[in-house]
Sequence to fold (164 residues):
Amino acid sequence: MASLSAAAAISGIKNPNRYNTQTITKHSLSLFPSSCPPTPAPRVRYCRRARRSLSLSTQGLVIRAAETMSTEKLGIKIHKNPPESKLTELGVRKWPKWGCPPSKFPWTYTSKETCYLLEGKVKVYPDGSKEAVEIGAGDFVVFPKGMSCTWDVSEAVDKHYNFD
Fold:
């Protein structure tokens, strides 16, 4: 339910306690006001099929707040869908940009790299592992210093990056 409170805060709903759950299904959760006014009421929807996003719809206006999820795999830290406020706080949009077309190449990180993918899809294979770490548009990724890997770019990449 914490996610629903976050959706209420993002949407500007002053009193989220005024809302009660009317419908719960396997794939969605919808909230409607307990006393519906004659005009269309705001609606918050949680849909597991749509990358676990929350959306508020009021008379055709839709605001989405994607669920942020952090993972670490094979030494690579991935933060999915970080909030814009976090990106602004870190100055990500002011970092240099780099891009490449679909390709496959080896890479070694001589220092820690932090990047935010604007576009693309990549499988990163750390040396000595047959497993890949998949990253894509909307991912905030941290590669550790000293990592050697192979990048397999399946969709052209455009990213902001910063070396520490």
User: Anything to note?
Assistant: Confidence is low (pLDDT under 50) at residues 1-65. The chain is about 10% helix and 55% strand. The CA atoms of residues 30 and 45 lie 5 Å apart.
